[in-house]
Amino acid sequence: MDKDFTEMQLKLNSSGSWSNVLRCGVAREQEVKAACETLVKASIGRLKFKLLDAAGGELARLGPPHYRWEDA
Fold first, then answer.
1. How many CA atoms lie within 13 A of 10 on its CB side?
2. Are 21 and 12 in contact (CB under 8 A)?
3. Res 37 pLDDT > 80
4. How far apart are CA 48 and CA 25, in angstroms?
5. Pick from 28, 29, 8, 11: which is nearest to 20 by CA?
6. How far, in Å, CA of 8 to CA of 43, rounded?
7. Rounded-to-integer distance, Cα 44 and Cα 58, Å
8. What is the rounded distance in angstroms from the CA atom of residue 40 to the CA atom of residue 38?
9. pTM for this structure?
């Protein structure tokens, strides 16, 4: 089966290992990034997020020390 590159995977690391959070369309990338930024602000822990393409390649990452999205 062909990979669907119109979708991406959001992963979260809050305690040392990565967990799948959701799959969404790439058209929703900015909304997903904004939601992650809100969760980071509300958290008392150190959250890390990353977005992956259909092949598992990293598209962007959000985490310490600056908590700004960085493109891969």
1. 21
2. yes
3. yes
4. 20
5. 11
6. 24
7. 26
8. 5
9. 0.90
Q: Which residues pair with 56 in a beta bridge?
A: none
Q: Identify which of 71, 69, 47, 46 has the alpha carbon closest to the alpha carbon of residue 57.
A: 71
- Position 66 confidence tier, pLDDT thresholds 50, 70, 90: confident
Taking the C-alpha atoms of residue 55 and residue 46, their distance in angstroms, rounded to an integer, is: 27
- The rounded distance, in Å, linking the Cα atoms of 41 and 67 is 9
Q: Whole-angstrom Cα distance, residue 56 to residue 33?
A: 18
Determine the pLDDT at residue 14: 92
SS (H, E, C) the chain: CCCCCCEEEEEEECCCCEEEEEEEEHHHHHHHHHHHHHHHHHCCCCCEEEEECCCCCEEEEECCCCCCCEEC
